[in-house]
Amino acid sequence: MITVQQAEDIILSQTQDFGIEDIAYEHALGRVLAEDLTADRDLPPFDRPTVDGIAIRYAAYEKGSRSFPVKAIQSAGEASIPIDSETECIEIMTGAALDHSVDTVIRYEDISIDNGMANVSIDIKKGQNIHLKGRDKKEGNILVQANQIISPAIIGIASSVGKTTIAVKKLPKIIIISTGDEMVSPESIPSPYQLRRSNGITIKSALKKYHLEADILHLNDDYEEIKKEISRCIHEYDVLLISGGVSMGKFDYLPQVCEELGIEKLFHKIKQRPGKPFWFGKNQHQKLVFAFPGNPVSVFMCLHRYFIPWLEKSLEIQGNSPQFAVLQNDIEVPFALQYFVQVKLGTNQLGQLTAESVHTNGSGDFSHLADTNAFMELPLEQNSFKKGEVYRVWKYND
Amino acid sequence: MITVQQAEDIILSQTQDFGIEDIAYEHALGRVLAEDLTADRDLPPFDRPTVDGIAIRYAAYEKGSRSFPVKAIQSAGEASIPIDSETECIEIMTGAALDHSVDTVIRYEDISIDNGMANVSIDIKKGQNIHLKGRDKKEGNILVQANQIISPAIIGIASSVGKTTIAVKKLPKIIIISTGDEMVSPESIPSPYQLRRSNGITIKSALKKYHLEADILHLNDDYEEIKKEISRCIHEYDVLLISGGVSMGKFDYLPQVCEELGIEKLFHKIKQRPGKPFWFGKNQHQKLVFAFPGNPVSVFMCLHRYFIPWLEKSLEIQGNSPQFAVLQNDIEVPFALQYFVQVKLGTNQLGQLTAESVHTNGSGDFSHLADTNAFMELPLEQNSFKKGEVYRVWKYND
Q1: Is B158 helix (H, G, I), strand (E, B) or coil?
Q2: Same domain, B291 and B201
């Protein structure tokens, strides 16, 4: 049986490039940016007042002028208005384009205007209250680097620079396949020995964060049906995310079916709890099969610990650093498997992320998935974990 | 001029209840749950083996039996199969419903089966490897509490309990209005004294996190047009989110227009940077106007510091605790305003959230909104902030 680290290494060695497509910027939120966004002109594109008031030529003030005839009022969006003589001023609004004949702006709060004369009674500095052309960025400078998830701020920047079509990463084509004769649809009334399905819709919902619209399929434990459908799906999709059918049961057909279809096993079983029977493979066309054990907690853990990192690395998403939290209670682990414990995250006033573990009844107990936020990964080498120790966490429910 | 805390108090005293609606669970991701989700039967609903193997009656083992004739193979999803005599066993799969005639399960790994006899050679415990009926939750117990954002895990739980229609909070009807003659559409080539609009699409994108689809409108600095449109919008929408037109400029008509339309000013101007000229009001029908100053950074700050908390409180979203981070560099603030500095968040191996401030050229400089993640709120009482100190942060770009 391999370790969690070995499993991660094998999975992350199978990342793939799904290409790039151009889409309208209004639809790009949440997609992965595939090009740098650059300034199409200097930012700001002109010298602009940062306040409402008057614009003067500082040389006149320096020579003693304190009253300036108002030549004109210039609003934002108008062509720049020059002064004709050094001692004139322009009433000017925030965001207007300053003319080269003026070089200093004084706020309305610091002047009075009477009979067309603006009177200045405070000390001023040359060049004050002006946001200079090109001060933030020069034309051609990078504003947003490629390989990050497109946020509201990035949409706003794209809009500012007229980038109305954006190159984004294409997403893999994914089907989620749940298995198990005991699983009925959520609309059904289950018999006393049946359960309603949830793994498919849970995974589908989790992938929406990446704007990935996965298909869903449920298969009963019928060998021929499973073989036929896996054979079809491995042709039609890039990735199969399967739950169930990979353990020791008499009807756990998946490993055998995959082998018969030429899907090479890259590993089966990891020294971890939950999720030990996880099976992972690929075929000769680099189609991948993530076959998770069927319990809801196992599926959720394997999805966040293995599939999401594979997806983020395939899409080349940068800037996600590992997250650590401070354990809030002692934990004893009475087995030799790397344990992923469900925790409730919080923050304290030291700016630390805190993690309080919850007691569960194993991987079939999904009743705490909604009131926890993360799995804390407790190292395999230890059995005893103490309050105050810091370990890595894998967030969900974000 | 009021303080940030006073502004927050005024805004949060204006929260509103927009009611509840029922929607299909497949469309509920990201909405706010308006009812508790409860277990429709015990969880698990039957005694279920947690491993694949054989089910026996412990009393037989206790009396010395080590070889058990296999009466039948029971898969998950089948009705329970009883043993006929105490010394028989059932081959049984994970997730099947255990019959009352058996009470202990032994894994395939710990037995051998020859000629229809299962041979046990290890020590076992009564009741082992069984996830007992009702062990996680009893019928009627709350699985998910109301007033939280519906996550993938909650969708999965809803599916499990057959809750295919879910009560969620209705969302307010919102229009985002940008103003300014200098602002042209992102598709346009601006003149040297024009800029492309971005505030509308930025706010609209930020609200999508709450599945809130806001309308967008741009108005030029035309008094009559502004008055006509604000008058229409205040009837048609619950909330107006406006950018620009609230400062000292000759064409900053909004405060006057609002007053003439009977929209009561609750405050104008806050002791903060950016965002000082923020205007907030309501009319007699509790319609709200958040009128932010027009610079992109001011809009972004006011949105996250004031509007989002108002929205989350109105929707009664629980469980969001304040976030704090450790400042990574010294900052001097040379003005008597509460400063919101843009920071890049990170985490360190102590589980602490870290915040590195970036230098910007004022509220018109939006070039750092994409490479930062939060505003750090630096207390008004101080001017000097040191590396290692911990302050509150308001996240964006999540």
Answers
A1: helix
A2: yes
The structural domain count of chain B equals: 4
Are B77 and A364 a contacting pair at CB < 8 A?
no
* B52 closest CB neighbour out of A52, A247, A353: A247
Are both B251 and B290 inside the same structural domain? yes
Look at residues A267, A288, A314 and tell me which one is the last residue of a structural domain: A314
CA of A364 vs chain B CAs: smallest distance (Å): 8
Using CB atoms, pick whichever of B107, B136, B180 lies closest to residue A76: B180
- Whether B66 and B98 map to the same domain: the answer is yes
Which of A159, A215, A343, A361 to probe the B interface (max B CBs under 10 A)? A159
Cross-chain residue pair A73–B250, CB shorter than 8 Å: yes
In a domain, A151, yes or no: yes
CATH number at residue B372: 2.40.340.10
Min Cα distance B19 → chain A (Å) is: 24
Q: For each of chain A's 398 residues, which pLDDT tens digit applies?
A: 999 999 999 999 999 999 999 999 999 999 999 999 999 999 999 999 999 999 999 999 999 999 999 999 999 999 999 999 999 999 999 999 999 999 999 999 999 999 999 999 999 999 999 999 999 999 999 999 999 999 999 999 999 999 999 999 999 999 999 999 999 999 999 999 999 999 999 999 999 999 999 999 999 999 999 999 999 999 999 999 999 999 888 889 999 999 999 999 999 999 999 999 999 999 999 999 999 999 999 999 999 999 999 999 999 999 788 999 999 999 999 999 999 999 999 988 888 999 999 999 888 889 899 999 999 999 999 999 999 999 999 999 77
**Closest residue, chain B, to A93 (C-alpha):** B249
Complex ipTM more than 0.90, yes or no: yes
Task: Measure the CA angle with vertex A234, ends A16 and A271; round to 5°.
Answer: 70
Q: Is B43 within the bounds of a domain?
A: no
CA distance B304 to B178: 17
Say if residues B25 and B37 touch (Cβ distance below 8 Å): no
DSSP string, B97-119: ---TT--EEEEGGGEEEETTEEE
Q: What are phi and psi of B5, to 5 degrees?
A: -65, -40
Domain identity same for A259 and A296: yes
> Would you give the end-to-end CA distance of chain B in angstroms?
32
> Contacts of residue B248 in chain A, CB cutoff 8 Å?
51-53, 107-109
Q: Which residue of chain A has the CA closest to B53?
A: A249
Q: A131, A62, A61: which is closest to A89 by C-alpha?
A: A61
Contact yes or no for A50/A129 (Cβ under 8 A):
yes
* CA dihedral (A84, A86, A90, A94) positive or negative: positive
Give the Cα-Cα-Cα angle A328, A334, A338 (nearest 5 degrees): 75
The sign of the dihedral angle between the CA atoms of B240, B241, B247, B251 is: negative
Interatomic CA distance for residues B209 and B192, integer angstroms = 35
CA angle A141, A143, A146 (to 5 degrees): 110
Q: Do A159 and B202 touch (CB under 8 A)?
A: yes
Cis peptide before B274 (omega within 30 of 0): yes
Q: Can you give the residue range of the structural domain that contains A361?
A: 323-395
Judge if B30 and B163 occupy the same domain: yes
3-state secondary structure of B43: strand
To probe the interface with A, which of B94, B247, B375 has the most A CB atoms within 10 Å?
B94
Alpha carbon distance A114, A125 (integer Å): 23
Cα A206 to Cα A169, A213, A238, A301, B15, distances in angstroms = 19, 10, 18, 12, 31
To probe the interface with A, which of B191, B295, B367, B391 has the most A CB atoms within 10 Å? B367
Q: From chain B, pick out residues whose CB is under 8 angstroms from the CB of A360.
A: 136
> Is A121 found in the same domain as A63?
yes
